[in-house]
Structure formats: structure tokens, C-alpha cells
Write a structure and sequence with these properties.
Blueprint (H helix, E strand, L loop, with lengths): L2 H8 L8 H7 L4 E6 L7 H13 L9 E6 L7 H10 L4 E5 L3 H9 L5 E5 L19 E5 L6 H11 L5 E6 L4 H17 L3 E5 L3 H9 L6 E6 L9 H10 L4 E3 L3 H4 L4 E4 L2 H16 L16 E5 H6 L6 H6 L2 E3 L1
Parallel strand pairs: 1-2, 1-3, 3-4, 4-5, 6-7, 6-8, 8-9, 9-10, 11-12
Antiparallel strand pairs: 10-11
Length: 327
């Protein structure tokens, strides 16, 4: 299947289906899939979500229908998209790619089950009161990527020990960005590491942040975990290459596409878990009784080609910890 055709399919182009098939599909339970990302940027994630659903016995178009809504990085669209899905109505809502998405879903319904897939701490974000017993219509999975700032800072120091100052690029417009600033600043203080906070809450701010690296003597950059950055991967990687700054990111797609290194949980695993929980709820489980799922492992990925271009030598101790090396 061609990429464009696949994107159209996951976008929910039901109008192109035969009328008989469409009528049959309308009798199926309907999953609402709400994401802050775009369809083009979520192909691998949707495949993983469908895999999780299939493990629970549900196949799209056969015994379940899926209505997709994409905010395409415009978070202000999420409440309207969530309300649209609730009006359908849908049987269960999968709300993914940042805490803003389940928050919008929660604003649209208190009765339809919501399964989130996010990188933030769901308790800290106010989505659930407890991880082990959510106790409402909301549960899900987190890969806790926003909580890994201190570990990422340590890894970046190991790779670039000569960096006098390390920069932290965050989206200060999000709760997630504010939490990361606090966590990484505390870790930097504990390590005696000078840290500069750089705001990347818009495309212009991202460009300005990179342009300021030299004047602030930033020798390495920690790119914060935020769904705002995900669809801007290519631009962030290009800026890091242009300014020749070693940068660490939050998931493996960055080094796969030319970034230096990443540390975080598997996005594929996260979306599979969301699919499994949606399937369990369709079978009758209550979200209140399903504990929030945590990642089973974190992966360190290094792009040696990029390291060579930056004239970096990866220490053997760091290579020994690496789960995937791209050459």
C-alpha cells in the first residue's frame, strides 16, 4: 500500500467505502482515536495501536470501527475534536500524544471510557488520582518520558564531558515543560552543572533558541519531552546539525532520522498497551479497575554517524549501555 493511501485510510475516509460496507460498519462498536499529532506522523503508532487491539480480538473494519481525529499540533483544536467524537457517540475514546489530549476528552465526557497514551506523569497532570486504581472513566498508559530529564542530563554529560554549559530546550507553554524545568534544574544543581533554559514554545522561539547557543556557551543540548516537538523532528535535527551542537532527544525516531541520541521508552509499546486496554474495555472491563500501565524498559539509541560528524567519541561505558547503535 502506498504511503499516501495508508495515511488516507487511517484518517478515516469512510466516504470512499461502498455503501453496503459503510452500513455494516455503522453497526460495529466505534472507537474514537484522538491525537494531538498528525496522521502522517503517526503511521507507526496507529499500526501498534491496531496490534494491541488485535491481541484483544478486535480488527478494524471487521468487528470494530475507528473514528480518527488529528489536531496536527494545534492543541487548541483538541476540545472541539473531542466533543465531535463524543457526539458520534463512540464506545470508548483513545486519547494520545500528550496530556492535553485526555484532558480535552475529559472535558467532553465523564461517562465514556477514556484510555490515554502519554509521556507525562498522569497523577501530576491531574488525569487520575492513583496509578494502581484510577477510580473513574479514565485510565491508560504512560512511558514516563517527561520524568527522565535527570537521567538524560547524566547521559549527555557522559557523552560530552567537555560541555561547560548544557541547554534545556522546553515548551514553556505546557505543564510538562514546567515540570521538566524543575526536575532538570534540580539534577543540574546536584551535579554542579551550569544549565541554560531555552524556550521552544513556537517555531520562531525554537529558531531563536538555537541561534543563541553560541552566545550562551552551550556545548550540548537536552531537548525536552513534549508532543509539540515530535512533528518538528526534522527541523530540530537540522538545526542541531547546522549549529553543530550534540543533542539528546526523548525517543528513538530522532536518532533514526539523523539525531545524535535518545533515551526513553518505546512508543510502539505504549500504543500497543493503549490498544490492549481499549480492547479490554470493549469486552466489559471498567477503566476504574485498570491500573495505569508503566513502561517495561527504557532504550538508549545512538547514531554513530552523527557522533562522527560532530567529532565525538562515544565512551565504551556508554556504548555498553546502548540498546541500538545506528551506523
Amino acid at each position: 500500500m502506498k504511503r499516501r493511501d495508508f495515511i488516507t485510510l487511517i484518517g478515516g475516509a469512510a466516504a470512499a467505502w461502498p455503501l453496503a460496507a459503510h452500513g455494516e460498519q455503522s453497526q460495529l462498536p466505534v472507537i474514537g482515536f484522538l491525537s494531538s499529532r498528525s496522521a502522517d506522523d503517526s503511521i507507526r503508532a496507529v499500526v501498534a495501536f491496531r496490534e494491541g487491539l488485535a491481541e484483544a480480538g478486535y480488527v478494524e473494519g471487521k468487528n470494530v470501527a475507528i473514528e480518527y481525529r488529528w489536531a496536527e499540533g494545534q492543541f487548541e483544536r483538541l476540545p472541539a475534536l473531542a466533543a465531535e467524537l463524543v457526539r458520534q457517540p463512540v464506545t470508548v475514546l483513545a486519547a494520545v500524544a500528550g496530556a492535553q489530549t485526555p484532558r480535552a476528552a475529559m472535558g467532553a465526557t465523564t461517562t465514556i471510557p477514556i484510555v490515554f497514551g502519554i509521556g507525562e506523569d498522569p497523577v501530576r497532570e491531574g488525569l487520575v488520582p492513583k496509578l494502581n486504581r484510577p477510580g473513574s472513566n479514565v485510565t491508560g498508559a504512560t512511558f514516563s518520558t517527561a520524568l527522565l530529564g535527570p537521567k538524560r542530563l547524566s547521559l549527555l554529560r557522559d557523552l560530552v564531558p567537555g560541555a561547560e554549559v548544557i541547554g534545556l530546550l522546553v515548551n514553556q507553554n505546557s505543564f510538562q515543560g514546567q515540570w521538566q524545568i524543575q526536575d532538570v534544574q534540580q539534577a543540574a544543581r546536584d551535579l554542579g552543572q551550569p544549565l541554560v533554559i531555552l524556550n521552544g514554545g513556537s517555531d520562531d522561539e525554537i529558531d531563536a533558541a538555537f541561534a543563541s547557543l553560541a552566545s550562551q556557551r552551550v556545548g550540548a543540548l537536552l531537548v525536552g519531552s513534549d508532543p509539540f516537538f515530535d512533528p518538528r523532528r526534522a527541523h530540530l535535527i537540522a538545526l542541531a546539525a547546522h549549529y553543530a551542537v550534540p543533542a539528546l532527544y526523548h525517543f528513538r525516531d530522532f536518532p533514526l532520522e539523523g539525531g545524535l541520541l535518545s533515551y526513553g521508552a518505546s512508543i510502539v509499546e505504549l500504543y500497543q498497551q493503549v490498544g490492549r486496554y481499549v480492547g479490554r474495555i470493549l469486552k466489559g472491563d471498567r477503566p476504574a479497575d485498570l491500573p495505569v500501565l508503566l513502561p517495561s524498559k527504557f532504550e538508549l539509541v545512538i547514531n554513530l554517524k552523527t557522533a562522527k560528524a560532530l567529532h565525538l567519541t562515544v565512551p565504551p561505558t556508554l556504548l555498553a549501555l546502548t540498546d541500538e547503535v545506528i551506523e
